[in-house]
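Q: I'm building a small set of examples for a reading group on sequence design. Run inverse folding on the following structure and report the sequence directly after it, with nothing in between.
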């Protein structure tokens, strides 16, 4: 014998359907609201949230990145591009032999997994709590070293500049350098096309040498 069809929303008499619909609305009125007023009210992230990366500095302003590319090799999404270069006494960016001359992270590829920061031997690379990374252009999603490099805190001098006198690279990692030595000044970044003071003076009076030399 055939079973009697059970009554469903579709098989209810026509006048009951709207009432059933209002029942759903009525129940929802007493539930906790999930609406977030973003971007006016931003949610606080967890302390160890994986957000935008940051390239850190030593307390005197020198960069921690040594251009070793380990972060790039560890990245499963091939999102990091690094080119290392040698420091010189005239143009020094990090305490040791090498520094990261070019550093890029492509946020169109990055999945914010954090494997790169685990791979970094100097703790140069860490992640911040910043999560607003959306953009309408792929080019804008490639963050350069200038965008990723940490800002200058008190006691820091912008790179390039000389190592703290009387110390070596190991002293930086032992935490013995706590700020730039008195009198530390930023060097001329010839590799970035800056012009040394003597050469700049040939530009004439209209273009003072001091303004030609520094400016990043
Ligand atoms: S967080 Fe993950 S995907 Fe993003 S750059 Fe680092 S290793 Fe690559
Ligand atoms: S961020 Fe760290 S792992 Fe990446 S190149 Fe610099 S020092 Fe090496």
């Amino acid at each position: 014998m055939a079973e009697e069809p059970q009554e469903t929303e579709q098989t209810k008499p026509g006048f009951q359907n709207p009432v059933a619909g209002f029942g759903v609305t009525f129940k929802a009125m007493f539930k906790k609201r999930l609406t977030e007023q973003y971007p006016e009210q931003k949610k606080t992230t967890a302390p160890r949230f994986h957000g935008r990366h940051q390239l850190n500095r030593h307390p005197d302003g020198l960069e921690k990145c040594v251009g070793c590319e380990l972060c790039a090799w560890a990245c499963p999404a091939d999102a990091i591009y690094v080119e290392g270069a040698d420091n010189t006494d005239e143009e020094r960016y990090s305490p040791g032999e090498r520094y990261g001359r070019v550093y890029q992270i492509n946020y169109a590829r990055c999945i914010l997994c954090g494997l790169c920061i685990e791979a970094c031997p100097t703790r140069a690379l860490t992640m911040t709590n910043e999560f607003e990374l959306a953009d309408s252009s792929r080019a804008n999603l490639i963050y350069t070293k200038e965008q990723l490099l940490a800002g200058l805190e008190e006691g820091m001098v912008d790179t390039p500049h000389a190592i703290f006198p009387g110390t070596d690279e190991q002293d930086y990692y032992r935490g013995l350098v706590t700020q730039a030595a008195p009198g530390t000044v930023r060097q001329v970044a010839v590799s970035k096309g800056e012009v040394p003071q003597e050469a700049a003076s040939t530009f004439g009076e209209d273009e003072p040498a001091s303004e030609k030399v520094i400016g990043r």
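The longest helix spans residues 16-28.
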